[in-house]
Design brief:
This protein has 344 residues and is of the alpha/beta class. The protein contains 15 helices and eleven strands. The protein folds into two domains: 163 residues, Periplasmic binding protein-like II (D-Maltodextrin-Binding Protein, domain 2), CATH 3.40.190.10; 140 residues, Periplasmic binding protein-like II (D-Maltodextrin-Binding Protein, domain 2). The radius of gyration is 20 Å and the shape is elongated.
């Protein structure tokens, strides 16, 4: 879906007159390969196109194959950089054959999408959402769901859970949220790019999850907002820590980043799920560029560092136009320090 979405989005953005990255200085010809997160594909494609317009000799080929597969390709040194919706832990970093730098590039919401004939957006709480995915809430007219949706007629129908079958950073963000809000989920299932799901059907990639939800009345799943929008599927408003029901949006993800500024300053890898703040969307996550600290091809390294610098600065406007959350100044400042760790 992202591959069909991008050309239309790119044409629309060009029509609005948004500027592309200016050439800071001539770069030698270089071909960069990258792989990972499907979540970040639309904006990564835009960034690559803008950067090539300013630097015609630089090709950036990004494969949208999922965060887990992207991390593995970085580990195998078959790509110049990866992208993941979940940062590597200290233990995972020890398994990398060479040191890497993890740089937050953008953020966004993971939305709850569903196929249900209701008159207005479904409202879900931490308790109802985790109960559905644990398999303890099995009908749409369960009293807990009804209580969260006053005035909405909910059917006496079984709930079909749809989840990712492949390793996914989107799964990492979603299960980090469930672990944060439900002790039973944390102890029984936990969080990660792949987990042992208690119930449900698996779909490969966000395309697979979207397809299963779209074709099955009573289904509910989690995908990136772009997938739900492009498939005309509704998204739920999720109750946040202060009790407000928030629909997924770039603004809600930005609010979650701002509310998490103190913990991110300590460790930029910290999950921003279930963040405090009246406007925070609770299932938000940062995405990360995962880049080897060192490299032998100087032309490639120069192009890579210039590309990342663009992403972290002028590229944030393109991210906002595609419904991603622009990085606040506090995170951009942290990112500049991380970028400085790459070899020169």
């Amino acid at each position: 879906m992202f591959k069909s979405f991008f050309p239309l989005a790119f044409a629309t953005l060009l029509a609005t007159g948004l500027s592309v990255v200016p050439a800071a200085f001539p770069l030698q010809s270089a071909s960069l390969t990258a792989a990972g997160s499907t979540f970040v594909y639309p904006v990564m494609a835009r960034w690559a196109a803008d950067f090539k317009q300013a630097h015609p000799g630089v090709e950036i080929n990004y494969q949208s194959i999922g965060s887990g597969a992207g991390i593995q390709q970085v580990k195998n040194r078959t790509v110049d950089f990866g992208a993941s919706d979940v940062a590597l832990t200290d233990e995972q970093l020890k398994t990398m054959p060479a040191p890497v730098v993890q740089i937050p590039e953008t953020a966004g919401p993971v939305c709850i999408t569903y196929n249900l004939p209701v008159s207005k957006p479904l409202q879900v709480t931490a308790e109802t959402l985790s109960g559905m995915f644990l398999g303890t809430i099995t009908k749409w007219n369960d009293p807990a769901i009804v209580a969260a949706n006053p005035g909405v007629s909910l059917p006496d129908q079984a709930i079909l859970i749809v989840h990712r079958s492949d390793g996914s950073g989107t799964t990492g963000i979603f299960t980090a949220y469930l672990s944060a809000v439900n002790p039973e989920w944390k102890s029984r299932v936990g969080n990660g790019t792949s987990v042992s799901w208690p119930v449900g059907l698996g779909g490969k990639g966000s395309e697979g999850v979207t397809g299963l939800v779209k074709q099955t009345t009573g289904a509910i799943g989690y995908v990136e907002l772009t997938y739900a929008n492009e498939n005309h599927l509704p998204v739920a408003a999720v109750r946040n820590r202060v009790g407000n029901y928030i629909l997924p949006s770039a603004a809600g993800a930005s609010a979650a980043i701002d509310a998490s500024a103190a913990v991110l300053a300590h460790d930029v890898r910290t999950a921003i799920v279930n963040a405090p703040g009246a406007k925070s969307y609770p299932i938000s996550g940062l995405t990360f560029l995962i880049i080897p600290k060192n490299g032998t091809d100087q032309a490639k390294r120069a192009a890579l560092k210039e590309f990342v610098q663009y992403v972290l600065t002028r590229g944030q406007a393109a991210a906002a136009a595609l419904n991603y959350a622009p990085l606040p100044p506090s995170i951009q400042k942290l990112d500049q320090g991380l970028l400085g760790e790459l070899d020169h």
